[in-house]
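Task card 7
Instruction: Convert sequence to C-alpha cells.
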Amino acid sequence: MSVFNAYMALSGAYDADVSRNERLSHHTTYRIGGPAALFVTVNSYPALLKIIEILRKEGVEWVVLGKGSNILASDRGYEGCVIVLGREFSRIAFDGCEVTAGAGASLARLVTDTLSHSLSGLECLVGIPGTVGGAISMDAGTRRDWIGSRVRDVVTLRPGEGLHRYAASDIEWGYRYTNIPTSEIILEATLALEEAEKSQVAERMEALVSRRRLRQPLGKPSCGSVFKNPGSRSVGQLVDSCGLKGYTVGGACVSDVHANFIVNEGGARAADVIAVMSHVHDTVLDRYGIDLVPEVKCLGFGA
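Output:
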C-alpha cells in the first residue's frame, strides 16, 4: 500500500479536495477519532471514478463517510482513504410527488425541502443528522417507519464495472439493514412521496422532534442508538433495568436520558466507548441471555 503515491496522484484529481492526516473527530458526531491517512471530498462523478481507480492501483483501502452520525472512529485513525461525496452528489430534485436526492445530501435538507413542497412520507427522518446515502444503506427511520418504504430506485457505483440501478424490490430491506454490497458506493435515490397539507406534515415533524428532545440526549456528542433493538424489546429499557445509566469509563457514559446512548462527556476516546459497550453487552447477556448487536459502525479498528 502506498498512501504517499496515492496522495500525490489524488492531488491532481479534478474536482476533488485532498488532505492528509485529517482528524476524524472533526467529521463524526461523537467528536472522536484519530487521523485518516487520506481524506478526499469529491465533487463530481468523473473525479470519483478517477479517485477509486488511483486507490485501487496503489492498494489503498477506502470508505465513504457521510455526516459521521453512526460511526465510532478508532483513536489510531484510519490507514486508508476517507471519501466524502460533495457538490454533485448533494443535489435534490423534485418531479411531482417524486424526489431524487444525491447520496451526499443531508437528511435535514431533504426533510425541509419535502415540507416546502407539501409532500409527506419522510417525517420519520426528521432530526436524524445523517446523509441520504447513509440513510439508504442502513434503512434509517423509526421503529415503525423507515426510508426504504419510500424508495423507488437506488443508483450505485460498482468500482471497476460502472453504474448500477436497483429497483426498490431488488433490495432486501431490514431493521437498520440493506443488502446493498458495501463494495458499492450509493450515489442517489429516488423516493415516492404523497401530497399533503403542509401544516399537517409540519405538525407530524414537530411531534417527532419534540419526542426526541425529551427522550434522547441531543445536547451531548453521541452516535445515536448504540445497539439494535432485539425484536420487540427495547435496548434502552434492558440497559436501564440493569442499572447501567450513568455507567462511565473515561469520558464515555451511558446516558441518563436514554440508556441506548453512550455520550461523550468530554475528552472521550474510542477505547472508552468500546469499554462501555462491552460492559453493557456482557451485563445484558448475563441477565437476559440477549446478545446485543451493535448499530454503530466502527472505523479503523482493523480485523
